[in-house]
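Progress against Task 2.4 (sequence-to-structure conversion) is shown through the following example record, which the project officer requested during the mid-term review.
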Amino acid sequence: MSMSTMDLIKSRRNIKAFKPDPIDEGALMSWLEAASFAPNHRGNEPWELLRIGPETRAKLKHKSDFWGAPVVLALLSKPGATGIERDENVMAAACFAQNFQLAAHAAGVGTFWSSIGGLPHNRELLGVSEGYEVIGVFGIGYPAEVPAAKPRTPIGEKIQTLP
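Structure tokens generated for the chain above:
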């Protein structure tokens, strides 16, 4: 039974406990392919991915080892020629991340989004070139448990109408 888009968005969670079950490579590639349809300025597709192997993963020293996720990926955003282009690239790569998380979630797979890759020593460890931004390091796997939704501020409180 497939979820509606609204239910899919509202039920996605940041997972902090994964089963050790492997992720099918073909499925992973299909979610990444779907993610690549994210909006991006001038069609420049500013995202790049790093698959984190066991040795690099250990060196990252994440406090929970990405909660036992069987797959770990880093998402990078390419540099821009100007400040605004850099910002546009980061925004597009964040859209890629959301698309990826929703595609995986639709298949019953969870994700954990960490900012650990942005730390200077981890950028070096990952071999991130100058000008690139680390959007996140993602643990990916089947959830062992799914946390409850955290309360959200009513959206009406976040809308300002301009004259």
